[in-house]
Amino acid sequence: MSKEMKFNECRLIKLDKAFGLNQVDDLAPLDTWLNHDSDISEWERQNLRFFQAVLNHNVHNWNETELIQHFIGPVFTLVNFSSKRFNYFAQREFSGVVDDIELSGNPDGMIASGFREPEKPYFCMQEYKRHLDPKGDPAGQALAAMLVAQELNQHQHPIYGCYVVGDIWRFMLLQGREYGISIAYSASGDSVFDIFRILKVLKEYVIMLTEQE
């Protein structure tokens, strides 16, 4: 093995060069995911409005941990990715070898098969500090984890991802050596319902993937 890379050291430009990746503007599986319908109940809408009010009051002051605990975590819990076949895991270390380079780290969040510990990751999430912090590349960190997930799944299906900066969410999809990044969805406005819908669709995909195993 010639080299090791930590997720938190990865930037998109570094990954593109190291693994021959190509960011594309039109990636059909990403478009399908982002535009797929899913019903949101009035109870879910009420909860989202409550979470959103807390977010809008605090987002410019929260640090990374506070944003995760007070907004991102509750939104994922509302979708409910917890089951006996798959679960939502946070800060779990995992690693893999991609093109003779070992990638490793602790993603802020992942959805993977397994109950007590992650087995095959299907979705990787990276949260980042506020907009004014110039350091780091949350898209690169998420994509690095997605590359490992792709290897662990033996390239059998797309890998999903997301990164969050303050109130802005962007969704990602990796297929082969191509990846796409969505437009920005602001959780401080009506797009909070799109964010939730996209996560509910993701749950449907994860259920299908685990049933195929």
Walkthrough of the structure:
The chain has 213 residues and is of the alpha/beta class. The protein has one domain. Helices cover 40% and strands 25% of the residues. The protein contains 6 helices and 11 strands. It has helices spanning 12-19, 28-35, 42-58, 64-79, 138-152, 191-212, and strands at 3-6, 22-23, 86-89, 94-98, 101-105, 109-113, 121-128, 159-165, 168-175, 178-181, 185-186. Strands 2, 3, 6, 7, 8, 9, 10 and 11 form an 8-stranded mixed sheet that branches. Strands 1-5-4 form a 3-stranded mixed sheet, with helices on one face. Strand 7, helix 5 and strand 8 form a beta-alpha-beta unit. Helix 1 (12-19) packs parallel to helix 5 (138-152) and helix 3 (42-58) runs antiparallel to helix 4. The longest helix has 22 residues, at 191-212.
> Given the C-alpha coordinates, what overall shape results?
globular
- Number of helices, counting only DSSP H or I runs of 4 residues or more: 6
Task: Give the distance, in angstroms, between the N- and C-terminal Cα atoms.
Answer: 30 Å
| Rg from alpha-carbon coordinates | 16 Å
Order of helices and strands: EHEHHHEEEEEHEEEEH
- Main beta sheet: strand number and arrangement? 8 strands, mixed
Q: Roughly what fraction of the amino acids lie in strands?
A: 25-35%
Which secondary structure elements does this structure contain, and how are they paired or packed?
Elements lengths: L2 E4 L5 H8 L2 E2 L4 H8 L6 H17 L5 H16 L6 E4 L4 E5 L2 E5 L3 E5 L7 E8 L9 H15 L6 E7 L2 E8 L2 E4 L3 E2 L4 H22 L1
Parallel strand pairs: 1-5, 2-10, 7-8
Antiparallel strand pairs: 3-6, 4-5, 6-7, 8-9, 9-10, 9-11
Helix pairs in contact: 1-5, 3-4
